[in-house]
Design goal:
about 240 residues, alpha/beta, Rossmann fold, about 25% strand, globular
Length: about 240
């Protein structure tokens, strides 16, 4: 499988303060990969760089073979990257159905694209609440809506930033099962989360960063075999 996202020697930061120091990682087509690290180590800065929200000061970002660093966020989204952001950020004054319709697009050119019917089959609770406003949903329902909204764009790459944060255990389990289903369907996914054991079961490859640098990368088998890495870099 070819790499769908390639980050090479990335340098980025805020207001002259560098946060990423030569970070490199790649994700292959159809793969689930993770970006791990303690809070404040550069995970969100990496995602913001990929999405064009931060202009890198060095290095390159390629998506599906084309350079995207320096491009506008809207252009990168149209290229087929969808994000489920930390905090969900759904539209509170739109209904569930309006939130979904607002993002409808077939960026993969799929013969069987994600549409309202498919999202409602995937998340039956959203169909039940389709006329409710975004601010009338529970935290778990908002997270389902955020994922459904991202899938409505039919992305080549789905990025989830702390998708299970703050959810009740039963709802969190439901989200994990949804991600396993998406993986089985061949969706390429990059996940940022803190539940290492669940990520080992879901993902194929993991990248750990510490103070803006890659300090470890490897397979689920390698990460599962060395819990010392967890304690050293992840505080588990």
């Amino acid at each position: 499988m070819s790499a769908i996202l390639e980050i090479e020697d990335l340098h980025a930061g805020y207001g002259g303060t560098e946060v990423l120091f030569g970070l490199s990682l790649s994700i292959r087509e159809g793969e689930v990969a993770t970006l791990l690290g303690r809070n404040g180590m550069g995970k969100t800065t990496t995602i913001r760089s990929v999405l064009g929200m931060i202009a890198p000061s060095g290095g390159s970002i390629r998506f599906r073979g084309e350079r995207i660093d320096g491009r506008a966020t809207e252009s990168i989204a149209r290229a087929g990257i969808a994000v489920v952001p930390e905090g969900r950020q759904i539209f509170p004054n739109l209904t569930v159905e309006e939130n979904l319709k607002a993002f409808g697009a077939n960026r993969r050119g799929s013969a069987t694209p994600w549409d309202l019917s498919r999202v409602y089959t995937f998340f039956p609770r959203l169909q039940e609440r389709r006329r409710n406003m975004g601010n009338q949903l529970s935290g778990g329902e908002q997270q389902m809506l955020a994922i459904g909204r991202a899938m409505m764009t039919n992305p080549h790459l789905l990025v989830l930033d702390e998708a299970t944060e703050g959810l009740a255990p039963l709802v969190r389990e439901e989200i994990w099962q949804c991600l396993h289903t998406l993986s089985a369907q061949g969706q390429t996914i990059l996940v940022i989360d803190k539940y290492v054991q669940r990520l080992i079961a879901l993902a194929r490859h993991h990248t750990i960063i510490e103070r803006g640098r890659v300090v470890w990368s490897g397979t689920s088998e390698a990460l599962d075999a060395d819990h010392g890495i967890w304690h050293r870099y992840l505080g588990v």
